[in-house]
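tl;dr need the bound structure. longer version: we got a ligand (heme C) that a collaborator sent over and nobodys looked at where it sits. i said id run it. heres the input, straight from their email, havent touched it
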Amino acid sequence: MRHSLHLLALLPVSLFLQTLHAAPVKFETEVLPFLEKKCVECHRAPYEKDGKTIKPKAGLRMDGAWAIKTGSENGAIFIAGKSGESPMFERVTLPEDDDDFMPPVGKADPLTPAEVDLLKRWIDEGADFGEWEGNLEGKPEEAAPAGKVATVSPTQQVYERLSKGLTAPEEKAWESITTSGGRVLRLSQTSPLLSVDFRLSAPETGDEAILSAKVVAPNIAHLDLSKTKATDAALILLADTPNLVRLDLSNTAIGDEGLKLLKGLKELRYLNLHGTAVTDAGLEHLRELTSLDSVYLWQSKVTEKGAEKLRTALPDARINSK
Ligand code: HEC
């Protein structure tokens, strides 16, 4: 009784504060989506295309928090708290006919005024990436404490372990994926592990196109099916991907039946179910995936109770439900 009275007394104050300060901008849900759509294409980890290595433009990668913080070959691209002194903000607010305008005219849509405003607020509020890390490939080692030998990061150790016994396929091997609208990238120049995504053709990509990825299935470490027309049937592919570390199913029609097919993914660390039809019942199929360290459930049909149950089953994982 006493407790509820206390809460009631606080209510008007918190409502008042909320109207004074809009909630802080969340990087992963509010900023990252438009950066991915309009910037990452040119500012991402090196990859191979037609036998050539394509490097990120200006040495700037925007596919990982550490990389955005590192900046370009010319230095930092933002100063936390100071959008006005941040090249990343300046570049998107120049007149469009300025040579420095980003994204380059005709190559990607310019940011909308709402996106510009989110970017500005995010920088001015301190440029906090929250829990988002993004692509850790290529991240320099943390400096080892004095007297200790630098070690390989845990993520790199995982990739090294998974690479053992795998041969790196030739680019020819995945032609069928490319003709189906997919994109295949090596995790690094010498790695046999691959990243497969359908970002460029996502809205038209159905199960059949996705299943084309079967030809290199054992080598797939990252699979991004976000925003495709994938149904649960597409996930049969996962029977052949024992080395899958990251799986993005966000904004698809994937539901509980599909999650049954994740059972064999013993190496899975990252699972994005944001905006899917998954319910609490589907989460039951994830309970044994003890390698998981992040699961995203925003805007799915999962209840807070269901998320809590998964937290209990996977205490080491971050289960992001709101
Ligand atoms: C079509 C490819 C392409 C896209 C898309 C693109 N960029 Fe660039 N970006 C470039 C190229 C090329 C350069 C180097 C030439 C230059 O400095 O203008 C560059 C340079 C930059 C630089 C300057 C780095 C430095 O210090 O020299 C920033 C900051 C930047 N881009 C931010 C962005 C942002 C933010 C987006 C998305 C809104 C974006 N870019 C989208 C191609 C692209």
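gonna send this back to them w/ a short note. The mean pLDDT is 89.
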